[in-house]
Amino acid sequence: MASTAVQLLGFFLGLLGFAGTIVATLLPHWRSTAYMGSNIITATAYMKGLWMECVWHSTGIYQCELYRSLLALPPDLQAARALMVLSCISSILASLVAVMGMKCTHFAQRSVVKSPLVLSGGVGFLCAGLLCLVTVSWTTNDVIMDFYDPFLLSGMKYEIGLAVYLGYASSFLSVTGGLVLCWSSRERSQGRRHAQTHQPSAPPPPFNNINPPAPLYRPPEALKDNHAPSLCSLSSSGYRLNNYV
């Protein structure tokens, strides 16, 4: 029962990390306008994401435009897209494999493949969390380097957006869920090995009395006159006549 609860905990943590990764991938709030100088009241605010760029006006109008050309994007943005998509795909595959390997499901019930499936799901969530963590860390480093660059104009500087913080939280949840699933699969395999070690040996098979029983013990005196019957014996059954006289 405890192993099932641990598996459910790890699975739901991985699902939360997967949902957060999708939201962070789609949101345009990866880079937001940096408010610098004495005048912090601006009429517009710019935000950049992986798939679109948005402008927010002080009048309440919110406009977004998708990136038209993939080849025109900078290499770091293309790499961030690829890593986040791979993270989402890894989370989907990990969820499917973990569901099939959990104890509360009926797939391959009482089979030895249950524990490897849960382990594979945990590894998938770990990979998804690490891919997301690499992407948001890379973006954070780029934003900080540009912000403190003295040769860059203040209007071209950005701050870390909310989607990056959401990516950090999602990667933490995915990694935690993957570790919990891996630990639960290891605990289950050790329990199965312990049960096999302490399982009582099967009783020996019953003795099958196929051979005829041994002859009864007879004293030497009773065997002294036992000789091989001759052809001239008076008994047709092979016994000597003096045995009956």
From TrEMBL:
GO terms for cellular component: bicellular tight junction; plasma membrane. Its main location: other. Residues 201-211 have a biased composition (Pro residues). The keyword rRNA-binding does not apply. It is a multi-pass membrane protein. It holds the Pfam family PMP22_Claudin. GO terms for molecular function: structural molecule activity. It is found in: Cell junction, Tight junction; Cell membrane. The keyword Cell membrane applies. Claudins function as major constituents of the tight junction complexes that regulate the permeability of epithelia. Belongs to the claudin family. This is Claudin. It comes from Gambusia affinis.
